[in-house]
Every structure is written in structure tokens, then in C-alpha cells.
């Protein structure tokens, strides 16, 4: 039998047995032949369970049916206008939902009784408590997980920053400290910050080392010319007033050493600047053929006793490289001037430029003294001279090639030398190609 979805007496009563209806109408029930209970209605049995009790009163207030405990408060009281009442009551600490319903005869519409359906909410309360406990448990677990994850995330951010702070403190105490932030193995902003932090420390210490080396080099290299000038001044003080020859020699020597000091200081400043060109001229470009033509022509005018040949047959038209044009010119002047200084009887210099794939190669070749194999790795060191006595006579300070190397490497290029004693030297420089007309085609 189908149970009504809405538990109202108007739905229940029509499905009760005739005997039950007779009792509700105040009539004598018809006894069954087998002496069975007249209240064994299917609908009441279905409605009856351990959580629901049903009590039916006749109009006189007598209990005519109950499948559980009879309510202590007896028959319900209705106002004249009320036919049913829904109440939620607490009895002995338990919550009950009670439905009070008047029963009317379908035929006469007279009041035939009262129905009380008492539904215990224990099961629902148990379910709600279970849900509440689950929610509390899940909330606690979620809070623990959230706190744990938050700690890990915050710690992963804070720890590198703490390391940076500690390293900064250590370097402040000892500027030569080589500590760095270890690789964080992460591709976020913090990983980039750690890389930038290490690069900043490297650059800062490089500048400090440059400054220290500059001061040391200056004090070392200026010692000789200062001593020479001081010696000649002492000669002038003793005999220069009375000896015109001593006066002339001392003045000329002092002037020569002063010029050498000036040239030395300028070269050292150039060397220091060469180590910072990537910051000063990050976007400068130069047309290789234009700069080489101009530089070679200038050197031909200065050194008219030399034959300086420029070959650009393998250079693509409009070849552009990323370099400040003055620096490219300075590199070429250093190499050509160096080739002229160390040339012997054959006064010939060959300058060549070529484009090879994504590179530009420039070479300067002389046919002079050459460089011994064990000296070739040292010639780019600052103040290094292959023959110190002859270099001093020629006015060299041992800084030109060091400046050229710094400039080339600052623009991501390479410089090298191949030489044979007695046959001459060939210096080669290489730069990344930015663009050329052949490439555009």
C-alpha cells in the first residue's frame, strides 16, 4: 500500500478499515471472526515504527487507538478555528515533532475524533550530530592542513630572504666574502630575485676588485716616472743652475716622463671604463665596414711609411654588430698601433674583415718580431710586456691589449692571437652578427 507523502488525517482516514472508522465515529466496532485486533490496519502498521507513535481519541477524549505511549497531556486542545496544529516539543531531553489533527466525517462533516502523531527526532538528531562532528573534524583537518601549507609556503619565501639578509650582513663585514644565495630551483619572482642578488654581489665585488687593482697598478706603475722626475729635479737643484746641459737634459726627461704618466693614467681609465661598457652602451650598434674604412684611412695618414691594406671582399654589405662605434675604432687602433710598434723591416699591415654565418671576424696582421708561444697567453694581462726595455723605448705601458680584450669581451666577442717568432703576429677578433644586407635578403 502506498503511503501518502503528506501525513494528514484527511489522507489517512479514508484508508483505515471500517472498524477503525466506526470507532472514530463513536460506533461499536465489528469484531472479526478470528478474534483478531480490529486495529491491524495496514496504514497504521506502516506509519508505526520505533520513532513514531500514533494516538487516536474519540470526541469524548477516550483513547481508541495507540501504538505507543499515550501522551501525558492527553487529548489536544484546539481553538475554534484550528483544525490541526504542528508543534516541536522537548520531553525528557528529547525533541519531538507532534501533529495534532481533528478528524471529521466525510459524510456528515461532524467531528469524529482527534489524531496525535508523535515523531521522535532522535534519528534526525543523531544524523545531524554525526554531520556536525564530521564537519568539525573536517574543519580541524582543513585548518591543520592550511596552517601546515601556509607554514611551508611562508617558510619557502622567508628562508631565502633570510639568507640574502645574512649574506648581505656578512659581505658588509667582509667585502671579499664569496658567499652567495644557493640555487633555489624555482622559476618564480623569488628565484629571479636570488639570481639578480647574486649577480649584483658579483658585479659589486668586481667593481671593488677593479678599484683595488686600479689603485695598486697606479701606485706601482707611477713609481718609476715619479722617481725619474724626482731624480732630475735633484740634479737641477744641485747643478742645473750652472750647467745648461744638465738643465736641458733634466727638463726633457721630466717632460717625457710627465707625458708617459699622462698616457698611463689615460690608459688605466680606459681600461676601467672598458669593464663597464655593457652598462653604459647597452644598445649601441656599428657598421663594421664603415668603421674599418675610416680607421684604416686615419692610420694610413698617421703612419705614411707603412702600407696598410684593408680587405673587405668577404664582408657582407651593411654588416651591423652590437658595439659602440668608438669602442670598435679604439680596438682597431690598439691592434694596428701594436702591429706597427713591433714591425721590423717589412712595414706592411694587413686588415681583413669577413662574415661567417652568424659571426663577423676581423684580423690585423703584421710581419714583425712575433711572439714566443709561452708569451702568447700572457700578452693580454695588464702591464705585461714581452720586452720591457724595448717596450719602454717605444712608449708602451702594457695596457693596450688588456683594454682591447676587455672591450671585445664586454660586447660578447672573442680575441685571440697566432704568432711565430721572426715572422709576425695575427690578432683576430670575433663578434656576434646583428644583421646584414645578405641576411635580410
Automatic annotation (TrEMBL):
Domain (HAMP) ranges: 155-209
Main location: membrane
EC supergroup of this enzyme: transferase
Name this polypeptide is given: Signal transduction histidine-protein kinase ArlS
Enzyme Commission number(s) from the entry: 2.7.13.3
A molecular-function term among this protein's GO annotations: phosphorelay sensor kinase activity
Secreted listed as a keyword: no
Domain Histidine kinase: 217-435
Swiss-Prot/TrEMBL keywords: Kinase, Membrane, Phosphoprotein, Transferase, Transmembrane, Transmembrane helix, Two-component regulatory system
Topological type in the membrane: Multi-pass membrane protein
TM segment ranges: 134-154
GO cellular component: membrane
Source taxon at top rank: Bacteria
Catalytic activity, reaction form: ATP + protein L-histidine = ADP + protein N-phospho-L-histidine
Intracellular or extracellular location(s): Membrane
Amino acid at each position: 500500500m502506498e503511503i501518502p507523502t503528506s501525513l494528514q488525517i484527511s489522507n489517512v482516514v479514508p484508508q483505515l478499515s471500517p472498524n477503525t472508522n466506526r470507532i472514530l465515529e463513536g460506533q461499536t466496532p465489528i469484531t472479526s471472526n478470528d478474534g483478531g485486533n480490529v486495529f491491524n490496519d495496514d496504514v497504521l502498521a506502516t506509519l508505526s515504527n520505533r520513532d513514531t507513535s500514533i494516538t487516536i481519541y474519540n470526541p469524548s477524549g477516550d483513547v481508541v487507538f495507540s501504538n505507543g505511549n499515550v501522551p501525558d497531556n492527553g487529548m489536544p486542545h484546539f481553538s475554534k478555528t484550528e483544525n490541526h496544529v504542528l508543534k516541536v516539543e522537548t520531553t525528557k531531553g528529547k525533541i519531538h515533532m507532534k501533529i495534532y489533527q481533528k478528524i471529521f466525517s466525510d459524510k456528515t462533516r461532524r467531528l469524529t475524533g482527534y489524531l496525535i502523531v508523535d515523531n521522535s527526532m532522535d534519528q534526525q538528531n543523531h544524523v545531524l550530530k554525526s554531520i556536525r562532528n564530521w564537519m568539525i573534524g573536517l574543519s580541524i583537518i582543513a585548518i591543520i592542513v592550511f596552517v601546515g601549507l601556509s607554514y611551508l609556503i611562508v617558510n619557502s619565501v622567508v628562508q631565502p630572504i633570510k639568507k640574502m639578509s645574512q649574506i648581505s650582513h656578512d659581505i658588509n663585514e667582509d667585502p671579499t666574502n664569496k658567499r652567495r644565495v644557493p640555487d633555489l630551483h624555482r622559476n618564480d619572482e623569488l628565484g629571479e630575485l636570488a639570481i639578480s642578488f647574486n649577480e649584483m654581489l658579483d658585479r659589486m665585488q668586481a667593481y671593488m676588485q677593479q678599484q683595488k687593482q686600479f689603485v695598486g697598478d697606479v701606485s706601482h706603475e707611477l713609481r718609476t716616472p715619479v722617481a725619474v722626475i724626482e731624480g732630475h729635479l735633484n740634479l737641477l737643484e744641485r747643478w742645473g743652475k750652472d750647467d745648461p746641459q744638465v738643465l736641458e737634459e733634466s727638463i726633457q726627461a721630466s717632460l717625457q716622463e710627465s707625458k708617459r704618466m699622462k698616457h698611463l693614467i689615460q690608459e688605466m681609465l680606459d681600461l676601467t671604463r672598458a669593464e663597464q661598457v655593457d652598462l653604459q652602451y647597452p644598445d649601441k650598434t656599428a657598421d663594421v665596414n664603415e668603421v674599418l674604412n675610416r680607421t684604416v684611412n686615419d692610420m694610413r695618414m698617421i703612419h705614411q711609411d707603412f702600407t696598410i691594406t684593408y680587405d673587405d671582399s668577404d664582408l657582407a654589405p651593411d654588416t651591423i654588430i652590437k658595439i659602440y662605434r668608438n669602442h670598435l675604432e679604439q680596438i682597431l687602433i690598439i691592434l694596428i698601433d701594436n702591429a706597427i710598434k713591433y714591425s721590423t723591416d717589412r712595414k706592411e699591415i694587413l686588415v681583413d674583415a669577413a662574415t661567417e654565418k652568424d659571426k663577423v671576424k676581423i684580423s690585423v696582421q703584421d710581419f714583425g718580431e712575433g711572439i714566443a708561444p709561452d708569451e702568447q697567453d700572457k700578452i693580454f694581462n695588464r702591464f705585461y710586456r714581452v720586452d720591457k726595455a724595448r717596450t719602454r723605448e717605444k712608449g708602451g705601458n702594457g695596457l693596450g691589449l688588456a683594454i682591447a680584450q676587455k672591450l671585445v669581451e664586454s660586447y660578447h666577442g672573442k680575441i685571440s692571437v697566432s704568432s711565430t717568432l721572426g715572422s709576425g703576429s695575427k690578432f683576430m677578433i670575433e663578434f656576434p652578427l646583428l644583421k646584414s644586407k645578405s641576411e635580410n635578403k
